[in-house]
Amino acid sequence: HTRLGISFDLLLRRIGPSGTTLAEERTIADNVGRRGARVMTTLTGLEVGEVVSIEEIGGPFRTRAAVRNTHVAADRVRRVGLEFLDREIVAAVAARAGTAAAPASNSTER
Fold it and tell me: Are 69 and 54 in contact (CB under 8 A)?
């Protein structure tokens, strides 16, 4: 999938079976595509297949997302690959980031 040259601040919420928030943190999506994002996290125990909630800070974008992968990078920061479940990233998010949803020059497949 084409990656967009944007990042955005968000609330990442771990949600329980009844929809209650079990944990949340403010973090950043640093690699974003229309259908998913890579998100830095300090939340422990997130597993592949788990469904989380994300909410753009100061903007309208909200969706549930499935954890598709998780890894700790060389900088020792855990990152999770999320697939958006309810909606694709909206052009307004990209526009606020100053890219008008243009693909990043170093786009890679996800």
Answer: no
